[in-house]
Amino acid sequence: MPNALSIRGLTKRYDDSRRDRRRRRQPPGTGGFLAVHDFDLEIEAGSFFGLLGPNGAGKTTIISAVCNLIRVTAGEIDVFGEPHDALHARRIVGLAEQDVNLDRFLDVEETLLFHGGYFGMSRAEARRRAGEMMDVFDLRAKAGVRAPKLSGGMRRRLLLARALMHEPRLVILDEPTAGVDFELRLELWRYIRRLHDQGTTILLTTHYLEEADELCEEIALIRDGRLIARDTADGLRTLYNADSLADAYVRAMGSLSSG
Ligand SMILES: Nc1ncnc2c1ncn2[C@@H]1O[C@H](COP(=O)(O)OP(=O)(O)OP(=O)(O)O)[C@@H](O)[C@H]1O
Ligand SMILES: [Mg+2]
Description:
39% of the residues lie in helices and 23% in strands.
């Protein structure tokens, strides 16, 4: 089976369009902001993978590249063996973005139905699945409520429900538990774990190291748009001679700034 995700030589330089460069009289490959540099990553099908790194490390940029939300400067990305921009590849990825970007004019159920339609689900299939998602994420009572009138945690849940609507094989969760209360966090963990047990590949970013330690089978540490290390949580503790993943993380990031 091909890997769920294969990223080779990904480079993203923001503000590097021909027009931008011409405006600044810069040659190709220069100028703008280099957010990700020659980044490689292979993620096996069925794994639970964590992408960790400080603010600005490039995590969301990498994810946005995978999901065709930004134009990449260089590199290749395959999803289950297909180019990431092919229609089928797009349809087997589900993304819960870091920014809660819900349409303020749609209610909970409409949000899910529209998404289903967008991903090619039939009306009946979308209705069935939307019902299922509202039950799973405890949103049934809010089916007719528009996004601005939901609580923050409910919006997070709706974002997840929407990402999972079309039953993607690769689920990408960009800080899904940011600002979520303790109880909901445990609930989300349980749900994401169950998805993974059913064979879904999960790519998670988080700033909660205990969350990564608890959930992820493998972790990549990134900083300044580059891969620093990739291993299991135990492997990272050993590699950095640390007692906890937090210690390993601090050492990994520290060793870089001093070197
Ligand atoms: N549209 C953009 N234009 C210019 N620079 C950008 C743009 N988006 C992101 N960047 C820059 O790219 C770098 C990486 O940002 P990115 O959002 O990928 O980081 P991140 O690892 O997701 O951080 P966080 O943990 O804060 O979410 C940052 O320095 C950021 O300012
Ligand atoms: Mg981010």
